[in-house]
């Protein structure tokens, strides 16, 4: 019997973990699988091993593990596969397939723009700071270069910058300081994050310290939208057609 195991990052902020679970529950009707479970890589429960066990106990024999992450970086390439490999030893008869994160997608850029419009009417000379989680994996900066290109192409804005919350340069607070030094008339801080958490709280604290004459808008995280829900369902369908994983990866 086929199952899907959605693997979220996890967070110390309970609301962030709840938002992830709620998002997936709204997406489940789009996915053709009788068994669907949610688990977390770290900081939240259930764990990946507990998620696999829940699938097996419900009768699963063919499990599609989907990293519910925005980009392909260290968590998707290393951390989740390592945990899956460890957990799979407990269930040697199960067939496990491993999918891809959401990835860089034009429609996700459209959601970013919607988040800006929720905050304020976008002026033609607006300044934007896109904020990513960050990773030591070089692929993260490559992905953000593509995101920046798509974003500028769609908005026609020219003053668009990137800052990272961890492991990448420029660091968010450094980028924020540099952008603020130009005293923009309208500044949007746009988190490229799925859910609220410690990182969004850190952003909020840093922004409150700013002393600017212009308007500053901290936009909402991406959150649930049917658009991203359909992309997630597509990743499940793609993984269902892939070859089973041979552990260790």
TrEMBL record:
It comes from Domibacillus iocasae. One of its GO terms (molecular function) is metal ion binding. InterPro entries: CbiX-like, Sirohydro_Cobaltochel/CbiX. SUPFAM superfamilies: Chelatase. This is Sirohydrochlorin ferrochelatase. It comes from the Bacteria. CDD domains: CbiX_SirB_C, CbiX_SirB_N. Keywords: Lyase, Metal-binding.
